[in-house]
Amino acid sequence: MAEANLPKTLVVVDHPLVLHKLSLMRDKTTPSAVFRQLLREISLLLAYEVTRNLPMTTQKIETPLTEMDAPILKGKKLVIVSILRAGNGLLEGMLDLLPSARIGHIGLYRDPVTLQPVEYYFKVPSDIDERPVIVVDPMLATGNSTAYAIKKLKEAGAKDVRLVCLLSAPEGIRRVAKDHPDVPIYTAAVDSHLNDHGYIVPGLGDAGDRMFGTK
Ligand code: URA
């Protein structure tokens, strides 16, 4: 389903386990509890990929047999920033793998008429400029909210920003890449297009509603 000519910053994590779990999530008969569990499992796998190139250093340790310079992560713990409310579903699985991560929240909703982002909350660690930042947003649709959130994070000082989305539309990928060519985008799948209401097709519906059972 992926289109040609997508930016080089895009990384499609099309591992069989990810795709299988995603298909179960897309199915409209999948109940909320199962949907949440699947999202948590996929998030962990996406976290594995987005952290693949984190900077490393070594630390001298003693194993039961000898001394060694053991590889460890370099620098301060990373920050995971959840775009509310659906971002929280991805956050949970990421924290399973990265329990010491700091957490930020950005509250945005999409104006249903203009499809433009409206901000109602912003809280991130004060030293975000010294940490890698992973932004999590399950559905990269128009890309308006996500591009806006990344702009706010850069204004707060973030320098190393990576984006993780469960599902993406080509429109959203291009939008984020145009505004933020330095930000790699990790996604499990690139779907066909957006419908007139800005929903990803074939997609999985409203991620927040499916997650929280609000519809
Ligand atoms: N947000 C969603 O939850 N689903 C879409 O398809 C697009 C935006």
How does the SSE layout of this entry go?
Elements: E1 10-12, H1 16-26, H2 32-50, E2 56-62, E3 67-73, E4 79-84, H3 87-97, E5 102-110, E6 117-123, E7 133-136, E8 139-140, H4 144-155, E9 161-168, H5 170-179, E10 185-190, E11 193-194, E12 200-201, H6 207-212
Parallel strand pairs: 1-10, 4-5, 4-7, 7-9, 8-9, 9-10
Antiparallel strand pairs: 2-3, 5-6, 11-12
The protein binds uracil.
Residues 86, 139, 141, 199-200, 203, 206-208 line the site of uracil.
Question: Can you walk through the features of this model?
Answer:
This protein is an alpha/beta fold. The chain has a single domain, classed as 3-Layer(aba) Sandwich (Rossmann fold). The chain is built from 6 helices and 12 strands. The protein has helices spanning 16-26, 32-50, 87-97, 144-155, 170-179, 207-212; strands spanning 10-12, 56-62, 67-73, 79-84, 102-110, 117-123, 133-136, 139-140, 161-168, 185-190, 193-194, 200-201. The strands form 3 sheets. Strands 1, 4, 5, 6, 7, 8, 9 and 10 form an 8-stranded mixed sheet that branches. Helix 4 runs parallel beside helix 5 (170-179). The chain starts with 9 loop residues before the first strand and ends with a helix. Bound molecules: uracil.
